Amino acid sequence: MLIWIILIIIPMLFGLYAQMRVMSAYNKNVRIPSRGHITGREAAAAVMESAGIHNVQIVRVEGQLTDHYDPINRRLALSEHNYDGTSLAALGVAAHEAGHAIQHKVGYSMMNFRQVLVPATQISAGASQLLIIIGIVLGAQGLGGMFLTLGAVALAVICLFQLVTLPVEFDATRRAKLQLVTLGIVDRDEMEGVHETLDAAALTYVAAFVASLGSLLHILMLIAGGRRDE
Fold first, then answer.
1. Based on the structure, what is the number of domains in the chain?
2. Which of 15, 31, 35, 122 has the most CB atoms around it within 10 Å of its CB?
3. Is 49 helix (H, G, I), strand (E, B) or coil?
4. Which sign does the torsion angle of CA 26, 102, 69, 62 carry?
5. Which of 82, 44, 42 is nearest to 62 (CA)?
């Protein structure tokens, strides 16, 4: 029971805390307008322009915090509040996504590695839970052990993807913060709101990795227990 709490419950609570923190930070700073009244779209364009990027389309997408950079189609998508918004949160998120575009342009190795992992991660995300459920139903020995092992492999792929995601996201945030000040988009004394928003967002990626790692360790313990019982 203690192991289950440590590996499953605590990471789950950490994930909930991270989600609440990012929503709290975003909802707070999305209400604080920047002095320059530059929109998120304009900020993203300025950051990419400064890096010599001219072939990335900036588009508006529905939803809240649905912002992302698509390196395959060279498309930077900003959610409605961040596309048109002039808040500190909007500028921080927009510059962060532009940071990913810069990573793509300069060939940032960890981003390239993450892209290589995407197909395997998509397959693993769809199969891992089913394999694990079948393995648990059948038991950790024999055929059930085989399904649990396959589930563990799928979880390991997901865990690796989320581990590689950490430096990618941290680096994009670093680039965003630097460019916002360097280009004069945000004054230094306004950066507190940007820091709060982006640092809270980064915590969600840490929480996702911790949760995946906990699940993987839990399944590996079930497999090891089943082999001892054989």
1. 1
2. 15
3. helix
4. positive
5. 82
Assess whether 62 carries a catalytic annotation: no
* Burial (Cβ within 10 Å: 0-12, 13-18, ≥19) of residue 43: buried
Whether residue 227 has pLDDT greater than 70: no
Q: Are 47 and 95 in contact (CB under 8 A)?
A: yes
β-partners of residue 61 are 79
Token pair, residue 146, equals 């085989």
Other residues' Cβ atoms within 10 Å of the Cβ of residue 228: 9
Query: Per residue in 110-132, pLDDT tens?
Result: 999 999 999 999 999 999 999 99
CB 175 within 8 A of CB 160: no
User: Which of the four pLDDT bands, split at 50, 70 and 90, describes residue 143?
Assistant: confident
CA distances from 162 to 15, 18, 33, 159 (A): 14, 15, 33, 5
**Residue 129: CA count within 13 A, CB half-sphere:** 4
Measured between alpha carbons, how far is 121 from 92 in angstroms, rounded to an integer?
28
Burial of 21 (0-12, 13-18, 19+ CB in 10 A): middle
Q: Which domain holds residue 159?
A: 2-229
How far does Cα 144 stand from its chain's mean position? 32
What is 103-134 written as a DSSP string? HHHHT-HHHHHHHHHHHHHHHHHHHHHHHHHH
pTM > 0.70: yes or no: yes
Catalytic residue among 62, 80, 97, 230: 97
Residue-wise pLDDT for 56-97, tens only, equals: 999 999 999 999 999 999 999 999 999 999 999 999 999 999
